[in-house]
Amino acid sequence: MLRMESVSKTYSRRRKEVCALDNVTLNIARGEFVAIVGPSGSGKSTFLLMLGGMLSPASGRVLVDGVSLYDLDTEERAALRRKSIGFVFQTFNLIPYLTASENVQVPLMLAGVDGNEKTERAAELLGRLGLGDRLDHKPSELSVGQQQRVALARVQANNPPVILADEPTGNLDPETGRAVLAFLEEVNREGRTIVMVTHDMRAAEKAKRIIRLVEGRVHSDEARGAQALLA
Amino acid sequence: MRLRTLVWREIFERKNQLATSFLAIVLGITAIVAIKNVTFYSEKAVAKELDALGANILILPKSASVQDYYSSDMQGDEFPEEYVNRLATSGLQGLDNLSPKLSVPVDMGGKRFTLTGILPKNEFAAKAAWQGAGVFARPEGCGIVVAVPGKAATPAKETLVRNRVIDTLGDSDALVGADVAASLKLKQDDTLQVMGKSFTVSAVLPQTGTIDDSRIFAHLHTVQALAGKSSVLNAIEIVGCCQEISKGLVQKINTLLPEAKVVTVTQVVDTQIKTNRMMARLSMVFLVIIVLVGGASIANYMYANVFERRREIGTLMAMGAGSKLVLRMFLLKALLLGVAGGLVGYLLGTVVAVVLGPRIAGVPVLPMPILALWALGIATAISLLASYFPARRAARLDPCAALQEV
Question: Model-level pTM?
Answer without folding.
Answer: 0.68
